[in-house]
Amino acid sequence: MAEKNKLMLELEEMQTQAHQALAEIQQETDLQKWHTKTFGRTSLLINVFSRLPEVAKEERPVVGHRANEIKTALETEYLAKQSAIKQAALQRNLSAEKLDVSLPGRSPLQGRLHPQTQTLRQIYNIFAEMGFQVYRSPEVETDEYNFELLNMPAYHPARDMWDTFYTTKPGVILRTHTSPGQIRAMREFAPGPIRVVLPGMCYRYEQMDASHEIQFNQVELLAVGKHITFGDLKGTLTDFARRMFGEEVQTRFRPSYFPFTEPSAEMDVECFVCGGKGCAICKGGGWLEILGCGMLHPVVLRNGGYDPEKYTGFAAGLGPERISMLRNRIPDIRYFWANDIRFLEQF
Ligand code: FA5
């Protein structure tokens, strides 16, 4: 009986001590140590069953039952303590890391449209208001469309105006201008009236400098119908310049030469930096060239499927990079494709 009492007393004593020790614990690490001591391999609770032979046979179930009771009670206390410690740690963190909602937030980096996309869309909008719709034509063209059908047969000296990238496939080139789209649009719409803009990349084997790139955008303008005159051409382009550069802008047309238009001209706008007096931007001349244009050549009309005796039309080709350089005073065309974020984020 003395042995039974001793083991039972040990158990009761162990429970009292474990209970008191648990009450004093504040840290997660101390809790772990307590757990190992109370339930670990050398603990009384684990070894009590191997010590049962120390107890009289009839008393063993009572001791065993009591040991299980104590184990369950201490486990319950342990879980409660564990959750209390976690809760206290959370409270400490919350009060230590104060959230200042009045601090200005960090704004996310916002993407934006490339300056050329912005200029192109502005050009489309202006011409859309005048009834012109966008018509896309291929950047990889045939010699036939880029030159031949535009009144420049093989060996025509005017071809020298466009330094061309040839491909390894005979007769296939990168278009040097958007003008081949004139023929494509005419062949699709003939004999109906046409009012389209043909935008896109052009490629020339150029010596690159501040105003010449080997790849650049053009926007071609094409109108075909009955009774279209040079007056319509001038009116449309002058109105475009006013909408693009402001109501007050002055324009002038100078005679020029393109094999696919007759008569041909170039349009200048009065330099809006110096107001026509002459400055570094307009190189002292007071005027800035923005496009080439003219009335459709009869050969081109015929190649597009229109009878030049009955139909007339006009076309123009403008360089949007040059336009945005002038408007934004960008000194070098190479900035557009250099992919320098410091340039791009200014627009
Ligand atoms: C042409 O390409 C004609 N197809 C324009 C035309 C269309 C005339 C319809 C008549 C009727 P030009 O080579 O001048 O013309 O080029 C037109 C515009 O493209 C130029 O005014 C310029 O703004 C732009 N451009 C030409 N070459 C380059 C280049 N290397 N880099 C950047 N822009 C260029």
Descriptive overview:
- It is a single chain.
- By secondary structure, this protein is an alpha+beta fold.
- Helices cover 41% and strands 18% of the residues.
- It contains 11 helices and 9 strands.
- The chain has helices at 2-24, 28-39, 44-47, 60-96, 115-129, 143-146, 180-189, 230-245, 298-304, 320-328, 341-344, and strands at 133-134, 140-142, 172-174, 194-203, 215-225, 251-258, 261-270, 287-296, 312-318.
- The strands form 2 sheets. The protein has a 7-stranded mixed beta sheet with strand order 1-4-5-9-8-7-6.
- The site of adenosine-5'-[phenylalaninyl-phosphate] has 23 residues, from strand 5, strand 7, strand 8, strand 9 and helix 10.
- Residues 177, 179, 204, 206, 212-213, 216, 218, 220, 258, 261, 264, 291-294, 315-317, 319, 321-322, 333 line the site of adenosine-5'-[phenylalaninyl-phosphate].
* Shape designation: rod-shaped
* Average pLDDT taken over every residue: 92
Helix content: 40-55%
Q: How many beta-strand runs?
A: 9
